[in-house]
Structure formats: structure tokens, C-alpha cells
Amino acid sequence: RSRSHTVTTTSSSFTANLSGSSSTLAYDREFLRTVPGLLMVTEIVLGLLVWTLIAGTEYFLYPAFGWVMFVAVFYWVLTVFFLIIYMTTTYTRIPQVPWTTVGLCFNGSAFVLYLIAAIVDASSVTKELDSHNYNSWAASSFFAFVVTSCYAGNTYFSFISWRSRTLQ
């Protein structure tokens, strides 16, 4: 018995648009001059300081510092990711994503979890625990609170942006 095979090929305009639009990558130099941009860079620099100060110690012997490391590294990576998205204006190419809501949820969760991590970090620092690592843990605690305040500021600006979008 003979079978007939029909193959239909279609051309997609998506690939044509993709190849045409990806040839130039936009770069928003002005973003770093805004308050949210400056806060984001500060979060990256000081967040890196938080987790490197802890990573240079024997933090794995104390579960509390493991939690601080998780929060610090997790939000450091995500903040770098969002900085790249904002600097390259990728958010304008993906209009399906509600970026104001995503930014508000990201910054709000970062603020809450970093605040908890900073409190845990500060309450776990004692000279009796391990005097060799005391200075690193104390410094990481201080910088964790500074990063927390940066995320609080970005949460405020994200809320203002989200609020103005929902009122339109």
C-alpha cells in the first residue's frame, strides 16, 4: 500500500525580525545616573562585599551564616541580571512581561530577605563563637544592613513606578 507524504514549509517573520533587531544592542548610559541605577550598583558592590567577607571564613560550621550567604549570593546574581536587563534596555524588547510588577516583587523580596539575613548575621556575631572570624562577620553584618537600605530605596522607587502604571 502506498502512502502519500505531504510536507508543508512555512516561513516565519519572527526569524526575520529577530535577525534584524538583534544586530544592534542598545545601551542606556543614563540608567546609571538615576537613583535606582546608583542604588543597584551599590547593591552589587556592597552585596559582593557581604558574601566575600563571609565566604573567607569557616561560615559552613554555623548554619546562620549559611542563610546569610544564600541570600547575599542569590540577590547579588539576580541584581547583576537585572542591571544587565536595564542597561541593555532588554525590557523594551519583551513587552509581555510586566516589568514594573517584576521590579517591585524583586526589590520587595530582596528588602525583606536581606533584612532578615542582616539581623541573623548581626545576632550571630560574637567573639566567643570564633574570634578569628569576628571582624569579617561584623563587617559583613554592617554591609548587609547598608545593602538592605539600598533595596528598601529601590523598593520605594519600584512602588512609585508600579503605582503610576496602575493608575493609567
Automatic annotation (TrEMBL):
Q: Where are the transmembrane segments?
A: 31-54, 60-85, 97-117, 137-159
- Domain of life, source organism: Eukaryota
User: What GO cellular component term, any one, is given?
Assistant: membrane
Q: Which InterPro entries does this one have?
A: MAL, Marvel, MARVEL-CKLF_proteins
User: What GO biological process terms does the UniProt entry carry, in alphabetical order?
Assistant: myelination
Q: Where would you say this protein principally sits, based on its record?
A: membrane
Q: Where in the cell is it found?
A: Membrane
Keywords associated with the record: Membrane, Transmembrane, Transmembrane helix
Domain called MARVEL: residue spans: 31-163
Membrane topology, record value: Multi-pass membrane protein
Could you cite one Gene Ontology molecular function of this protein? structural constituent of myelin sheath
Q: Which PANTHER family match?
A: CKLF-LIKE MARVEL TRANSMEMBRANE DOMAIN-CONTAINING PROTEIN 8 (PTHR22776:SF10), MARVEL-CONTAINING POTENTIAL LIPID RAFT-ASSOCIATED PROTEIN (PTHR22776)
Query: What name does the UniProt record give this protein?
Result: CKLF8 protein
Q: Which organism is it from?
A: Pterocles burchelli
